[in-house]
Amino acid sequence: MPILGSSPRRLGLASIASIATVALLLIPVPGSTQDVTEPALKAAFVYNFAKFTEWPAAVVPPAAESFILCVVGDSAVADALERLVKGRVLAGHSMAVHKSPGAPEQACHVLYVSGLTAVQATQLVAKHRDLPVLTISDSEGFTELGGIAQFFFEHGLLRFNIDVVSARRAHLQISSSLLTLAKRK
Question: Which of 18, 62, 73, 99 has the fewest CB atoms lying closer than 10 Å?
Answer without folding.
Answer: 62
